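#lab-general

N.A. 3:47 PM
ok so I finally got the sequence cleaned up, no stray characters, all 119 residues accounted for. can someone with queue access submit it? mine expired

B.Y. 3:52 PM
send it over

N.A. 3:53 PM
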Amino acid sequence: MARFLTVLKPRSATTPAALIDALEPLLQGLQAEVDHRTTAHLSALLRGGQEQLRMQLFADVQSKADGPVLELVLMSREPMGQGAQQTRVVFGQMLQLAATALPDMELSFRSDRDGALPA
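B.Y. 4:20 PM
back already:
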């Protein structure tokens, strides 16, 4: 099962609801269908190039000592042992969309570069 994690840190004070609301352009860019949403959590379904490869995107606002962070997790059933190429491509698209659609957020962690979990 493929699992890629990104952690984004807001550059200024904000609320969990505002962080979730800010994801709208990213969701549109990925053509994601939201299936659950609260003020601090979101889950959405998307397809990664092949009809049979469904992917799930989870967004969670986590409270940290120095302020909230937004964790984005992209998951699929594609095997990580084989590199999860399709999921990795969608993860790359997600990172590019986040960089343009979420300019007030700083990328502080990505699992494909920094390891499986944040330190």
